[in-house]
Amino acid sequence: MSTTTEQLSDEQLAATTLLRFATAGSVDDGKSTLVGRLLHDSKSVLADQLEAVEHASRSRGQEAPDLALLTDGLRAEREQGITIDVAYRYFATPRRRFILADTPGHVQYTRNMVTGASTAELAVVLVDARNGVVEQTRRHAAVAALLRVPHVVLAVNKMDLVEYAEPVFAAIAEEFTTYASELGVPEITAIPISALAGDNVVEPSANMDWYGGPTVLEHLETVPVSHDLTACHARFPVQYVIRPQTAEHPDYRGYAGQIAAGAFRVGEQVSVLPSGKTSTITAIDALGESVDIAWAPQSVTIRLADDIDISRGDLLAPSGDAPATSQDVEATVCHVADQPLKVGQRVLLKHTTRTVKAIVKEIPSRLTLDDLSQHPEPGQLVANDIGRVKVRTAEPLALDSYADSRRTGSFLLIDPADGTTLAAGMAGESFADAKAVKAGSDAADTADDEGWDF
C-alpha cells in the first residue's frame, strides 16, 4: 500500500513540476526551428496552428511546413527571418510542464535575452555545426552565467549538414564547455541535433548512433529543478498593510505580500528592515485560514505581536538571518532603455516592493562580452550594454547578493520622469567565480543642490 502511495505521489509531483527555460542562438542557427520542432513533435501544437503554418509555408513555395513560423509571431520576425522579441510558449508532457522563453540571439537584442533568461532555470544555447562557437555563442554563455542560470544545454544544430560527424560535435562541445566552465556555469550538457530533420530533439537519431545521451526533450523532462525555496534565506517583502477596523476585526493589523524565499513560522522572531525593529509572528493567514507555516511563493498575511510602523516596501526576515542594509549598492546591470545611463543621473531604484530615490555615483566598467574584458570608466551605458555601477540610495535597502537569491538580489533602475525602465540590476559579484575584474575606484560624493545628495 505504501508503495502505491509513493508511486502516486511521484506521478503527481511529475505532473505538477514546472521548468522555465530560455533559448538563444545566433541568427540562422535554427533556434526558431528547434522550438517549432519541439512543440510539433511533442504534440503541443493545435491543429489550426499547424494548418496555418502549412498554408504559409506553401505560399512561400516550401513543400514541408516551416516550423519556425510557430514561434516567430511578429510580422517583422517572419519577414526578416530573425527573432526580435521574447516569445513565451506554454506546453506540457506527461512528465513535466514548461514555460519557454524564446529569446533573440542578435547582439542588438541582448536586453531581450536578459529579460527572457532572468527567470529561467535552464538555457538552451544553439550553435550551427558548420560555424562552431562564434562571438554570439560566447555572449549567450556570458549572459547565462551573469544571470546565474543553473543549467545550460549546448544544442549543436544542423548536424545533417556536416554528415553527422562526431569529431565536429566533439570539438564544438569541448570549446564551449571550457569557456562556460570558466564563467562559473555549474552544469553544461551538449546534445547533437538537427532541428529541421528532428534528430535528437524529441526522438533519438538513427543517424548518430555514436551519441548515447538524452534527446533535448528527455533532458528537459529529467533535469533536476530545485523549487525548494524553503532552503533559501527567508524574505517577505510587505506589499500591503491590512487594517479593516470593523466591528468584527477592530484591532486586526496584517502585513500582506508574497513570500520571496524561505519559510516563516508562527512564533518565529523576525526583524523589520530597514528599521531593524524586531517582533514575533503571532499568526499567518493564507487563503482565509490560519496556518502555522508558510513558504515561498505563497501569498499570505503575517501578523506580529507588536504594533510596529511597517508599510509597503519594508522587508521581514528572521532575526538571525537578516540581510545587511546599506545605501550603497554595487551591481552588474544590463541597460535596456534607448536613452543612456550616465554618471550623476537621478533614478528610482525598485527592489521587491520598495522604490527609493537614487543617484548613479559611478560606472566603473563596461563588460565586453566577446572576451569578458572590462572597459574602464565608460561614463555611460547605452542600450544592450552590461556594466558595473555604483548607486547611492536615499534610504537604506536590504539587498541580498544575486548569487544568494535571484529574487531579492535583483532590482530595476527607473527614470523618475516617465517611469521608463532603464536597467536591470544584479547585486554583488558578476560571475560565479568572481572572474570579472572590478575596475575603477570609489567616486567622491558631490553635493547636489536639488535634494538628491545622499
Unreliable spans: 1-15, 73-84, 434-450
Number of helices: 8
Structure class: alpha+beta
Which radius of gyration do the C-alpha atoms yield? Answer: 24 Å
Explained architecture:
- With 454 residues, this protein is of the alpha+beta class.
- 20% of the residues lie in helices and 33% in strands.
- It has 8 helices and 25 strands.
- It has helices spanning 2-16, 31-41, 47-59, 75-80, 110-117, 135-146, 166-183, 216-222; strands at residues 18-25, 87-93, 96-102, 122-128, 151-157, 187-192, 236-237, 240-242, 254-258, 263-265, 269-273, 277-286, 289-291, 293-295, 299-304, 315-318, 326-335, 341-342, 346-351, 354-368, 373-376, 380-381, 386-397, 410-414, 421-427.
- Strand 11 (269-273) and strand 12 (277-286) form a beta hairpin.
- The longest helix has 18 residues, at 166-183.
- It is globular, with a radius of gyration of 24 Å.
Keywords:
single chain; 454 residues; eight-stranded antiparallel β-sheet; disordered N terminus; 25 strands; alpha+beta; six-stranded mixed β-sheet; 33% strand
List the helices and strands and how they pair.
Layout: H1 2-16, E1 18-25, H2 31-41, H3 47-59, H4 75-80, E2 87-93, E3 96-102, H5 110-117, E4 122-128, H6 135-146, E5 151-157, H7 166-183, E6 187-192, H8 216-222, E7 236-237, E8 240-242, E9 254-258, E10 263-265, E11 269-273, E12 277-286, E13 289-291, E14 293-295, E15 299-304, E16 315-318, E17 326-335, E18 341-342, E19 346-351, E20 354-368, E21 373-376, E22 380-381, E23 386-397, E24 410-414, E25 421-427
Parallel strand pairs: 1-3, 1-4, 4-5, 5-6
Antiparallel strand pairs: 2-3, 7-16, 8-9, 9-15, 10-14, 11-12, 11-16, 12-13, 12-15, 17-23, 17-25, 18-22, 19-20, 19-24, 20-21, 20-23, 24-25
Helix pairs in contact: 6-7
